Amino acid sequence: xxxxxxxxxxGLIIGAFIVLIIGxxxxxxxxxxxxxxxxxxxxxxxxxxxxxxxxxxxxxxxPSDKGTxxxxxxxxxxxxxxxxxxxxxxxxxxFLRLNDEQNSLIPITLKPEDxxxxxxxxxxxxxxxxxxxxxxxxxxxxxxxxFQRFQEKQQALQLNEQSLSKxxxxxxxxxxxxxxxxxxxxxxxxxxxxxxxxxxxMDLVPSMSFSDWDPSNLEALKxxxxxxxxxxAGQPAAETFRNQYAQIESAYFEYASSVNGTISAPEIALPNxxxxxxxxxxxxxxxxxxxxxASWCGPCRQESPNVLKMYRKFKSKGFTVFSVSLDDDxxxxxxxxxxxxxxxxxxxxxxxxxxxxxxxRYGFDGIPFTVLLNRDGKIIGxxxxxxxxxxxxxxxxx
Length: 398
Hints:
Blueprint: H1 2-11, E1 13-14, E2 18-19, H2 29-37, E3 44-51, E4 57-62, E5 69-75, E6 81-86, E7 92-98, E8 105-110, E9 115-121, H3 137-159, H4 166-190, H5 197-200, H6 217-231, H7 236-259, E10 269-271, E11 277-279, E12 287-293, H8 298-314, E13 319-325, H9 330-339, E14 346-348, H10 357-362, E15 369-373, E16 379-382, H11 386-396
Parallel strand pairs: 3-9, 12-13, 13-14
Antiparallel strand pairs: 1-2, 3-6, 4-5, 4-7, 7-8, 10-11, 12-15, 15-16
């Protein structure tokens, strides 16, 4: 199943900054030696029968950023039966590799006390392992069968015996990928705590960008993240899934904030200068510029006259500003509002400066920083200032 690794190679990376290798388990030579000498008890078993594979070796390996790490191995008997035992510290992502001419392998997820059984033929090993015995084996069977269909569609498109146009071939590839994605998403939503979601989740990761990515994938990833944290609390797999979900969510938020209006702005509910709590969500129905600034920020104060100009020009058409200050001195904050004539009514601050949780929630590291919201409270622009802000508002509010 070499193509499985090729297909997911780009799926493991968003740009060059998100690496998606889930639940890597380090299984070093010392652990292997302890297992062989009886100093470490076996806590999982993979057994069964693979017809026509007598004498071949089976390997269980863990992928890592330094290559694959051996976990356990065993030879297939003359009658096709085999039994492999080993030890894993917790839920993890592995390959079951058959040492034949095609270098066949299938992705598996092992956890302590798993007793995985395989009953198949050599020619069906990668697509129809007929696995049983674990909470995730049925899901794996369905996934590998679906993936086989996906590969067949890809190969047919590559051969292009129907002489399709380049555009139709591209559409075919996209449709095949979308079907695979829909299958994995449906399975994840159906059974969020299933260990095999580690594998399924890779189909929901955008290969290079979010341009053709379905944002409903976030819901599936979120549900699995929460289910893993509950069922596998304290295990690296749960923590890794949480971190990776956060990275994907943040990356998509950044993309969506300047491209489409599909992501709702995180809620902001903070005191105004009079101590009254104001909520961003209360401004739904208006076009809102969320403006992060501070009295001590020179560029922010220089931009203030333009924001005021935009407010006066478009407020009668349903535009307003929601200013969020990163000040930590209430008096200086209030003085700046008065001195710069920031006459819109929506000013809030938690007076925590850069320690405000909104910095991470909105994902910025410098001010002034703005987020433009449509009437539904969804993000349609980011970091708009000067002429760009006026152009955008003129489009929205002619």
